[in-house]
Amino acid sequence: MFFVKRQIFLLLFIITSVQLNLYAQTPSSLEVPDFGVDDGSVYNSGALRLTWVYAKDLVKQDVVEFEVQQASSSEFVQQKAIYRGPDLATFISGLKNGTYFYRIRALRKDLEKKSPWSSPLRIEVKHHPLSLAFTLAGVGTFVFLATAVVVFQGSRNQK
């Protein structure tokens, strides 16, 4: 009986040691994530992919998740949370013409700690002008009609 108690005690000691060692390896304060997008970037489609970089060991251990906010001013007076999760990227679509600001922070799931917010990232959305769309549609129509005429003339000459 003494041998079984000793084995159980030894097993609990090993498990506790491993857990304490893992806990000691993860930092108590969190780094601020860095965006992988250039500040002041201009997008013409109203959609963008935001990426960020963070310490790989914490992401692999599934200890960290990220929170991204969007606002129309760099002060983030009226912000909107657009992403919260463990991924290192998010896709945003449906943006109208204008300037948008984004910030990100890391959150530790196990300790409920939060990093400071990142510096604001400024993104500008400028859709292609409507005149360009009409011009391209007109050129496409002209090419289609010209091709149809050539095919029609060729088939008529064959008879």
Automatic annotation (TrEMBL):
Record-linked Gene3D superfamilies: Immunoglobulins
Annotated InterPro entries: FN3_sf, Ig-like_fold
Signal peptide boundaries: 1-24
Transmembrane segments: 130-152
Superkingdom assignment: Bacteria
Keywords per UniProt: Membrane, Signal, Transmembrane, Transmembrane helix
Protein name per UniProt: Fibronectin type-III domain-containing protein
Taxonomic placement: Bacteria, Pseudomonadati, Bacteroidota, Cytophagia, Cytophagales
